[in-house]
Design a protein that fits this description.
Elements: H1 2-10, H2 21-35, H3 42-58, H4 66-72, H5 74-85, H6 91-125, H7 131-142, H8 154-161, H9 165-177, E1 181-184, E2 191-194, E3 204-206, E4 212-214
Antiparallel strand pairs: 1-2, 3-4
Helix pairs in contact: 2-3, 2-6, 4-6, 8-9
Length: 215
């Protein structure tokens, strides 16, 4: 650990052996998790170190969902980490980390845009919805940009709000008419989704030539 801390200090952007932001963050996470100094929590600390390294290299706090994106790609993360632990050649790990960082940046932008759209919609509907409708909308927004992928059913609305089937139908129809929700399907097959722009964030890989490839 002493050697790791010395390396981490001398590779800062203002130190004697500065590394690029992505390279330093990727190597720092790999080195720490390879050392595995604690009985538990090494992965969480390793991801935190990667985020700290990015902030240090950029010279300012970063707003990026790096740790969350790594956990979304947990299977490939463990595979890349295991492969990098078996040899000194870590180019593949660096490429994997770069892809994750790009994807995390896109997810961060998508989340920020989603929160802005959420605020705009709730402000627009202020005073035009009842408590049940507000509760359901807030529950849907809490799922984030990728929440309720299959849509909200009438049954889910009833479970969230405690409304009767007839009241559920009226509430949902009212939210659709006001532009808060969109509806696909009819009757019991109807599904309701938040009426906010949403661009899906696809998984990103970086190949051996350093090219970004969407999966």
């Amino acid at each position: 650990m002493n050697r790791f801390l010395e390396w981490f200090a001398r590779t800062r952007r203002d130190a004697q052996q500065p590394l690029s932001a992505l390279t330093r963050a990727a190597v720092a996470q790999l080195y720490f998790e390879s050392i595995h100094p604690f009985e538990d929590g090494n992965g969480r600390i390793g991801r935190a170190i990667a985020e700290k390294s990015l902030a240090e290299s950029l010279g300012q706090p970063t707003l990026i969902t790096l740790a969350a994106t790594i956990l979304l790609r947990r299977k490939s993360y463990y595979e890349a980490l295991e492969a990098a632990n078996k040899q000194n050649e870590i180019t593949n790990w660096l490429a994997w980390f770069a892809g994750i960082a790009i994807e995390a940046q896109r997810r961060t932008i998508a989340l920020a845009e989603f929160l802005i759209d959420k605020t705009k919609q709730l402000d627009r509907l202020k005073g035009e919805q009842n408590e049940r409708q507000t509760k359901a909308l807030l529950r849907m927004f809490r799922e984030g940009p990728e929440g309720f992928q299959v849509g909200l059913s009438a049954g889910k609305y009833t479970a969230i709000t405690g409304a009767s089937p007839a009241t559920t139908t009226r509430d949902l129809s009212d939210l659709v008419s006001k532009g808060a929700l969109t509806r696909d399907g009819e009757l019991r097959h109807a599904r309701y989704r938040l009426n906010v722009p949403r661009s899906p964030v696809r998984q990103v890989n970086v190949n051996e030539q350093g090219e970004v490839v969407e999966v």
